[in-house]
Write a structure and sequence with these properties.
- The chain has helices at about 5-10, 10-30, 35-55, 70-75, 80-85, 90-110, 115-145, 150-160, 165-175, 175-180, 185-200, 215-230, 235-255, 280-295, 295-300, 305-315, 320-335, 355-375, 380, 390-400; strands at about 60-65, 65-70.
- By secondary structure, the chain is an all-alpha fold.
- The chain is built from 20 helices and 2 strands.
- The relative contact order is 0.15.
- It has a two-stranded antiparallel ribbon with strand order 1-2.
Length: about 400
């Protein structure tokens, strides 16, 4: 190769960039024009918000050879606004209600039975769960046999399996989609209000009643998603009402009613806004849903660009795997680094800004560990890769899933 030919050949970074752009254009071309890309963008932001939120506020402190859970919000409550940014579950339920109600309506139009539709929806939820349960059953048993402290095993297992509560609630709401399709969100909101009045107003005598809000609380954004499908939230007025009303109600509940400012659970706190959901968590979710609705047009314009859309599509392709394994990635990184001694931001008490800065520095390593988990377990969500599969083909199958055909009647 002479010098002139070498000069004309682009370098490795340029070739890699061209390959990314080419792949992004293929993903963009595989997307049907009727697909609302803002919905996928909202789901991607919701998942990434939960992941980053957990990585920033979940600490595993090395304490006498054992690991215990802690949180910087426990020692620095003034960091509560972090939870306002990264606690994005309401947006995920909003999108989930919108997609499920629209999917059910399309299934009915095709003549697909409710049972067949539900099996299709739930199988995509629970296939990845099986892999997580099997792996952590083996890990927990191995740790106990090897002599690890029971407190450490319990802490790790509880954190690893904590995403499962969300999936159980989401599965229950998915099953109830035909009933939710016409439900006014004010009804479950009224249930949450009355439950909180009883459990907090009567001195904690009926604290157990709060678990009713585990369904009613998340039913509020889920039913808002169904209202979106019905076309009731298309105007910007609905978004502004939800955003301003939810924000004002949340501020009033925190300032005057004594609800916690943190929108995530804090170890040792007397009341958690999420365990089970409180009225403040639900009104905060209303504000988030309103903001999501207001941002739809901007998101549509942003993800109209091939590279941005390809990134969103790839996150959605592995959304459930990311959600299920992000805590495992954090714990694997923490455990593997334990022999090196207590490391700042990883094994130390999260009680100052030095810990926060160190934790930010660990985020790339958490991301790498999560990428390894994705490589190992994404097939449970996406299905097995075919020989010669290009990522754009995988995305195309995701964007154009095979629809079950209704069974023909014998008398047809």
């Amino acid at each position: 190769m002479n010098a002139r030919t070498a000069a004309r050949r682009p370098g490795l970074p340029r070739r890699a960039l061209d390959a990314v752009r080419h792949g992004a254009r293929r993903v963009d071309a595989a997307t049907p024009p009727s697909r609302d890309r803002a919905v996928d963008a909202l789901r991607a932001f919701a998942i990434l918000g939960v992941v980053l939120g957990h990585w920033l506020v979940t600490a595993l402190v090395a304490d006498g050879g054992a690991l215990r859970a802690a949180s910087p919000l426990q020692h620095m409550p003034w960091l509560a606004p972090i939870s306002w940014v990264f606690q994005t579950l309401a947006v995920f339920f909003l999108v989930g209600g919108h997609v499920a109600s629209r999917s059910h309506a399309c299934a009915r139009a095709r003549g697909t039975t409710y049972g067949r539709w539900l099996r299709g929806r739930l199988s995509r939820l629970f296939r990845p769960v099986a892999a997580l349960l099997v792996l952590w059953t083996v890990v927990a048993a191995s740790l106990l046999v090897s002599g690890a402290r029971f407190e450490t095993v319990r802490t790790l297992t509880k954190l690893a399996l904590s995403p499962l509560w969300f999936l159980l609630v989401f599965a229950a709401l998915t099953a109830a989609t035909p009933l939710v399709a016409r439900l006014n969100p004010l009804w479950p909101l009224a249930v949450v209000l009355h439950v909180d009045l009883i459990r907090f107003g009567l001195g904690g005598a009926y604290a157990w009643l709060g678990w009713v809000n585990l369904a009613a609380g998340w039913l509020v954004p889920y039913s808002l998603g169904a209202a979106w499908t019905r076309g009731e939230l298309e105007g910007r007025r609905a978004g502004w009402v939800l955003f301003t009303g939810g924000a004002a109600a949340t501020a009033g509940l925190v300032v005057w009613a004594g609800y916690p400012a943190s929108m995530v659970g804090v170890p040792g706190a007397a009341v958690s806004n999420l365990d089970p959901p409180t009225l403040a968590a639900v009104t905060f979710g209303l504000a988030q849903c309103g903001l999501a609705l207001l941002l739809r047009e901007r998101l549509r314009r942003a993800v109209a660009r091939p590279v941005a859309w390809a990134a969103v599509a790839l996150v959605n392709l592995s959304a459930l795997t990311v959600f299920l394994w992000h805590q495992t990635a954090l714990m694997a990184t923490t455990a593997m680094a334990l022999p090196a001694g207590p490391l700042a931001g990883l094994h130390t008490v999260p009680d100052d800004l030095t810990w926060v800065a160190a934790r930010l520095a660990w985020l790339p390593l958490f991301t790498l560990a999560l990428a390894l988990c994705l490589t190992a377990f994404r097939s449970y969500e996406q299905g097995p890769r075919r020989p010669g599969d290009h990522p754009s083909r995988v995305v195309r199958r995701h964007l154009h899933p095979r629809r079950p055909r209704p069974k023909k009647s014998r008398h047809a």
